[in-house]
Amino acid sequence: MKKTLWMPLFVALVAGTTIAGCTSSIPSTESTGQFVDSAAITTKVKTAMIAEPGLKSANISVDTFKDVVQLSGVVDSDQAKARAAQVAAGVPGVKAVQNDLIVK
Fold first, then answer.
1. What is the distance between the alpha carbons of residues 36 and 28, in angstroms, rounded to a whole number?
2. Predicted confidence (pLDDT) per residue in 35-65, tens digit
3. What is d(CA 83, CA 32) in angstroms, rounded to the nearest whole number?
């Protein structure tokens, strides 16, 4: 009788541990919907950068994660760096801008 009681308990414990291990508790991942939203925001920011005369030829990379835009690359002046951040912040859906642009 004791042997049969331990087996279901053991199976339940293993199953619970496996399921708990599969859930994402790491905040560094996006859901599918968030990924699609981030991709759309990235596209809108890049389009806005191309439309901006002083930024059109700049080497600016745009990445978005959970509605936070990260700008990286090289620009010619501090004004171009500031303007790139303004343009990115003006795009609907952007919560924040991390401006990692380098002035050369």
1. 16
2. 999 999 999 999 999 999 888 767 899 999 9
3. 31
State the Cα–Cα distance between residues 36 and 33, nearest whole angstrom: 5
Q: Which two tokens stand for residue 74?
A: 């090289």
pTM, to two decimals: 0.71
CA–CA gap between residue 12 and residue 101 (Å, rounded): 52
d(CA 99, CA 23): 32
Task: Give the separation between CA 46 and CA 73, rounded to whole angstroms.
Answer: 13
Residue 14 lies in a domain: no
* Total domains, the chain: 1
For residue 49, give its domain range: 31-103
Q: What is the 3-class SS of 55-100, one letter each residue?
A: CCCCEEEEEEECCEEEEEEEECCHHHHHHHHHHHHCCCCCCEEEEE
pLDDT digit string, tens, across residues 5-34: 666 776 776 766 655 555 555 567 888 889
